[in-house]
Structures are given as structure tokens and as C-alpha cells.
Amino acid sequence: MRVTKKTEKKQPRAKAAKKTVKTKTVKTKTAPKPRVRKQKTQTIPKIAVVEASGPITVKFSRVDFEKTLAVARDFVEKGGTMPILTHVYLGITEVGCRLIATNLDRFWSKNIDCKPGGPVNRCVPVEVLYSEVKALPADIELAELSFDEHTVSVNNRCQIETLPGNDFPAMPDGGSKKAEITDLVVKTKRVLPAAGDSDTRYTLNTVCINLQKGHIAATDGHRLHIDDIEAYMDSPQLLVPTSTMQLAVKHGASDTVKYSKQHINFEVAGGTLVSRLVEGTYPDYENIIPKKNPITTRFSGTEMLKIMEGAIPLSRRESKAVRLTINGQIKVDSMNPDLGQYSWSLPCKTEGNKGKDLVIGISAKFLIDAIKAYTSKEDDSVIMELNESLSPILINSKAVVMPMRT
Q1: Residues 6+ apart with CB under 8 A from 292
Q2: Which distant-in-sequence residues (6+ apart) come within 8 Å of 315 by Cβ?
Q3: Alpha-carbon gap, residue 11 to 6, rounded angstroms
Q4: Whose CA, among 80, 90, 123, 292, lies 20 to 30 Å from 159?
């Protein structure tokens, strides 16, 4: 009888042991974290080049190399968690050197003449390399880079730690479809002031190149700037990040654009800029443009800019709001409760208001940007088309500014 009692007591323990085994299997099923991490690393293709063993010295034109590094600084990551993105890739062969800089959203590459050849496959911190090349005495015409196993020296003046070139992200193909946009830089300059920068609606942080309708446009939700470009049938909207278009303007992009579904390609600063495109739906900006505003007023943009210089310091710091009273002249008023107030007038020619004053509130900054974008030294006239105090304001048929309550 004692034996049977002992066996009866052991049975519950065996069952409990089985339960613990079951709970362990459930935990392992709900933890696929290693797979996710592995997929992330695989999405960034790397450069694969074999480097020669032993020290190698390569000579560049000091002036050309310094200018190239100055441009590359604009395309690398500023800080961040990936040290490799603060470096430039130097792929050197007997033919020459290919330099690449990236922050993963955009890449810039340029081929540079050098003597003798490589092969060298190395990544160098761009800020340090640029500083050392720039610091060379003025009478030195060649920048001599001497590579050993882990470092590079510049004219035997320093030792800079490097990273393997095979760790650097591979540059994507910018696409094969081509479009010609006449005066791309000039027209981009006109629309850039209206582009968003850090809006939570990520499509607003872009410049829209609408090849099908023949427009280049930008809006931050409070204003719109637009210009005309060549139209291409059956072509898409290209949503290019604002920061990419700023660099395209800064470094003088060519008028030829190549693109695919995911990337756009510009020729910039003697090299190639490839940027990712933003996915999403851009606002229907054509519906924002007022079609029939009955009131028009014409005035000098130069005179208005001078008045704005006086009005802004005494406006509210955040909104920069001013009040325009429009009739036979435009009276500009601004007020800051802590600093004081401003009032001045300029002549204008107004039609359609039937002799009544029209009072509107507007951001002085938005008005200044629109005047600078769509006037010139040869023709500084500004035509504002209006309807009511809280209706959108059309400026020179190209800029739309939403009014403000004052």
C-alpha cells in the first residue's frame, strides 16, 4: 500500500513538469527578433572590392581634391548612429578614384584623376580629411595620400584612422527614364521657400516635379509656389525631398533628370546625385489656386520689400503677421505688444473693390518670399488678386498665400 501511495504522489509532479515545458515552447514562438535584425542589415547592399596589400601612395591635385571634399561634406550624415555614414568612400584603381558620399537618403559620387593607381578600397572621415587637405601650405600643389593597413596620411603630416571600403553602402541606380527641365535651378529656387522641412505630413517636405502636367510646385500647407516646366505624357509625379533640391540648387544641377520608381538622378558639381523619392499622394495644389478673384491691386515689389524691412521688427516674432489695408493705396501695419507698432503706406492701383477698404492679414515672410521669387530687377511689379479678407491671395499668378487673422 505504501508503494501505491508513493506512485500516486509522483503523478502530479510529472504533469507539472509537462506544463513548464509547454510554457517554454510558447516563449520561443513569440520572439523572432533575430530574423528582423538580419533582414535590416541585408537591405543595405555593400561595395565589394579587393584591396592590394602593403602601403600605397596616391597623388591628387590639391585644389581639385579640396573642392571635391567640400561638396562631399554636404552629402554625409551629420552625427547619427552609423559612423560609416560620416565617411567618404575612396575606390582607387589604375583608371582613377571614385569618391562616394551618402546619408542613405541620397548619394553623391564623382570620378577624380589621380596618380599612380591602386587598388585602394577605403573609407575616410570626410571632415578630418577635408581639414587636413585644406591645411596644406599654399605652395603645395599635390595632396599625397599614403594608405597602410588601417590608416591614411596626408603628405606625411598626420595619421587618420580608416574603415574598410567593403562596409560602405552601394550606390543605387538613379534610373534610365529621362526628362529635360529648362532652367531647373532657377525654377526650383522660386518654389523652394514654400516647401516643408519637418512637417509630420511627410509629402509636404518635398518639391513636386509633376512631369505629366508640366509643373514644379511646393507647399507647406500655408502657401503654394508653382512654376511651369516641360510636360511629358504618361509620366509620374516625382516627390523629391526638400533637402535634396536645396543641394541641387546650391551645387548647380543640370537640366537633365533621370528617374525610376524609387530614385531620381541629377548631374551636380561634376558628379552624380542620386536621391530616393518620397512615396505618397501630393496635395491637389491646382484646387488651391483661386480661379476668379474680383479684386486686383498692382504695386512695386521693391518698395514693398523696403516697407517689410521696417514692419517685421515690430511684428509678432512667431507669425511675422502684418495687416494690409487696400484701396487707393496699401497701408501696412504691424504691432508687437512688447516692442511697439509700425505703419507706412505705398501707392498702388486697385480695381474691383468698388471704393471700399479691403483689410487682410498676411505673413510678412510669406509675402517677401513670393515677391522675391516672382519679380526681377527688370520687372518688379506685383499683382495681387483678392476676394475677401479670409480668402486665398494669388500673387503674380504663381504664388498662393493663405491669409491670417489679425
Answers
A1: none
A2: 321, 322, 334, 335, 336, 342, 364
A3: 9
A4: 80
Instruction: Report the alpha-carbon distance of residue 336 to residue 54 in Å, rounded.
Output: 69
Give CA–CA dist 322/404, Å, rounded.
9
Distances (CA, A) of 321 to 303, 312, 314, 360: 18, 8, 10, 10
Contact 142, 61 (CB under 8 A): yes
Number of CB atoms found within 10 A of residue 303's CB = 16
Q: Cα 329 vs. chain centroid, distance in angstroms?
A: 40
- 77 CB-near residues (< 8 Å, 6+ apart): 85, 86, 102, 103, 104
262-291 residue pLDDT tens? 999 999 999 999 999 999 999 999 999 998
Single residue among 286, 304, 319 that ends a domain in this structure:
286
Q: What is the model's pTM?
A: 0.83
For residue 115, the 8-state DSSP code is B
CA dist 166 and 91 (Å) reads 10
Residue 9 lies in a domain: no
Per-residue pLDDT of 332-350, as tens digits, reads 999 998 999 999 999 999 9
Q: Which of 234, 252, 286 is the last residue of a domain?
A: 286
Cα(195)–Cα(217) distance, rounded to whole angstroms? 8
Work out how many domains the chain is built from and give that number.
Answer: 3
Return d(Cα 50, Cα 376) in angstroms, integer: 55
